[in-house]
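COMPLEX REQUEST
Ligand: 2-acetamido-2-deoxy-beta-D-glucopyranose
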Amino acid sequence: MYSFSECLLLVASLLLHNANIAAGRIALSDTETSIKVEKCGKPEFQSIQDIPLDGNIPLSPRGPYKTSGGPIQGKLNVHVVPHTHDDVGWLKTVDQYFYGRNSSIQNAAVQFIIDTVVLALEENPDRKFIYVEIAFFKRWWDEQSPAKQASVKRLVVNGQLEFINGGWCMSDEAAPFYVDMVDQQTLGHLFLKEHFGEKAAPRAGWQIDPFGHSNFMATAYALMGMDSWFFGRIDYQDRAKRENQTTLEMVMHPSASLGSSVDIFTGVTRGYGFPSGFCWEHNQDDPICDDPRMEEINVKSRVDDFVSAALEQAEHYANKDGNIMFTMGEDFCYENAFPWFVNMDKLIHYVNLDGRVNAFYSTPSMYTDAKHAANVTWTTKTDDWFPYCDGSATYDPSTARIDTNDGHAQWTGYFTSRAALKRNVRAASSLLQSCRQLGLLQHAHASKDAWCPPPFEAAVAGSSLWEGLGLAQHHDAVSGTSKQHVADDYAVHLQRGSDACQASMAGALEQLSGAGQLVYCPKLNESICEATTLWTEGNISVVVYNPLGQERVEFLRIPIGASGGVSVIDATTFQCVEAQIVAESTGGRTLAVEAALPATGYSVYTLVAGAGPQCRAADTSERRLVSPSGSNSIQNAMLRVVVDPATNQLAALENKKIGKTVRMTQWWGYYIASDGHHQEARERLGQASGAYIFRPACAEGDVEPCLPTSVAESGSGNSSRPNTTILE
Ligand SMILES: *[C@@H]1O[C@H](CO)[C@@H](O)[C@H](O)[C@H]1NC(C)=O
Ligand SMILES: *[C@@H]1O[C@H](CO)[C@@H](O)[C@H](O)[C@H]1NC(C)=O
Ligand SMILES: *[C@@H]1O[C@H](CO)[C@@H](O)[C@H](O)[C@H]1NC(C)=O
Ligand SMILES: *[C@@H]1O[C@H](CO)[C@@H](O)[C@H](O)[C@H]1NC(C)=O
Ligand SMILES: *[C@@H]1O[C@H](CO)[C@@H](O)[C@H](O)[C@H]1NC(C)=O
Ligand SMILES: *[C@@H]1O[C@H](CO)[C@@H](O)[C@H](O)[C@H]1NC(C)=O
Ligand SMILES: *[C@@H]1O[C@H](CO)[C@@H](O)[C@H](O)[C@H]1NC(C)=O
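STATUS: Structure written out below.
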């Protein structure tokens, strides 16, 4: 907001300006050459295009700047990749980030990023930008006029605006379930396909911020048709070695079973920020000043800075192929895209006049093409990039030794942070799969005689839950690293989506089963289901849906009223169904029903109040542990799991194939979190445990890793370890 006095100032200077024009001259400043402006005539600008005023670089103030270009063989090619990293919730909620609300928390407003980037791209067809998070982009898109949408389509078609990654968010890679990771990518890609066509399918994975990387991600990206992926965070010792050996870029060979079909070019970026000194967010760093009519021309020094940043990075990246990538951006950068693009235009122009390196606007796909064209051989890697640890280290190639004086910033805390949100996400994910299946089954049912592929709407049944889950996969969502009010917001999205899904599932099952009007009972874990607890007479139908691809037998627990008998009848066969009434310690009663469920299908049971004795559910207050074979183990063809009947805990695991048994002792313990200061005397140990980083508080002199405190034997637990012995 402008203060009142600033507004007044603005008006006053405009008046002055007008007065000068009326007088026929503009005085630029006391010290500068003044330029004569003929009243109503064409201004006579001095030709300053070719005057070398700063080093040997001819200046061209206000352009035209030459910003076209691409890789040149034999030169160091600097791919300038303008980007913004827009978290779909972290310190602020996704909506607060979009609107730019709550700036006291963080200055970030995604709507203006996309607004100004699009304007800046429209101004100069050489400029490029990549955009990643479709959760934000779709919101922006939905608010645009058809003319603006058409303009954006042109930018996409001519390669200026490229969607990278293209998921709903930039997902975490440790905490999400793989189905959800694929789903959130699908959701974003469906949007891109719908509005920009298949040609806009992202070619590069872009996971520059998540805290460690899974080889599944490489497999998934390859299967999504991408030919590269990039990320910024790897273990600091690994980085030290790879920087020295120029192996930060490689080919991932992530799947033994899928083989080379899922090999993918993989690049570890330098974090994901701008090179030091080249940030123009809120005009942070020095702009390029090149107008000889003004003071402080700095073109030479800015070019020198750029070239030395490029040469330094090239030592660790480009020894084989002559291409490096500058990730020109940071978290929520380009809220005003103009300082960025105006300065980058000038830099590219002057750097190329200087000639030591070749700079141009680029994207990760162009970069990958350049790497590919160089026809060099890359190292390979097959496994995960977990856990991720921050720190500083040096690698000595002569001894192959990594010297480290850190190592306490292990980003493993987020594997368990906000456990309740993690569980919430899993439950919602399972609901979404059921919801989607029932949407399709309903569609198939409706078009039974002439089955045709379902329309988009049927396929996306439950899309508000799909979107909520898309948000929740973000690397500050399910990871548990957002602020409390943001975590609450994720829960709201999941709940809203779940409510919608439950309603649509009830609708689908009504139509499919003909069982009458159905209500979904989401609170069975608290024995709450009014439809059954308030029911006292007549019949009610219970429909049970099994989303798994195999038949199963489950014991349903249905809360019922305080008195009266119940019969349970299979509504298809009219046979009695085995059931039992259990009196709960809380005073309520539960009807336990042995339900046989078909694969990806439903069963309907009729509950009859106080019916005939042949079907009557046994009424008992006794709880019995049913052990059909009297055995304390379960098994399949491969494994036998033995439980200790005294404790109900795992006792042994047998590998039936090789005939080996591992005896197990289960043992629950917890770690005390380090506050980071308990060993202040030993400098460097100041890392505290928290939502991101797990660091147990070890006693002075403990050999790390220190042991957890046992829950059972609190206090003494850290002196004994779990017992695992292999018996022949
Ligand atoms: C965000 O801003 C709104 C409006 O100013 C305010 O009501 C709300 O408390 C703020 N939220 C947080 C988490 O600061
Ligand atoms: C690798 O380390 C050695 C020894 O410190 C150093 O001489 C060499 O320049 C390093 N190479 C790179 C690419 O950093
Ligand atoms: C690529 O490199 C291989 C091995 O170095 C060589 O056999 C091949 O001819 C090269 N291909 C091109 C197109 O340069
Ligand atoms: C039952 O489930 C809901 C949502 O899944 C959860 O919020 C609630 O805490 C659960 N209740 C109990 C007693 O565990
Ligand atoms: C309740 O179900 C039983 C068993 O299927 C049936 O005999 C009876 O007619 C039903 N009663 C009503 C009111 O629907
Ligand atoms: C380990 O056990 C000792 C006592 O046996 C206790 O003093 C110490 O606090 C424990 N350490 C941790 C980290 O729990
Ligand atoms: C660990 O297993 C071995 C072999 O069965 C047994 O002798 C030992 O008592 C066990 N120790 C504990 C603490 O359970």
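REMARKS: The radius of gyration is 32 Å. Residues 672, 697, 699, 706, 709, 715-716, 718-719 surround 2-acetamido-2-deoxy-beta-D-glucopyranose (ligand 6) (CB under 6 Å).
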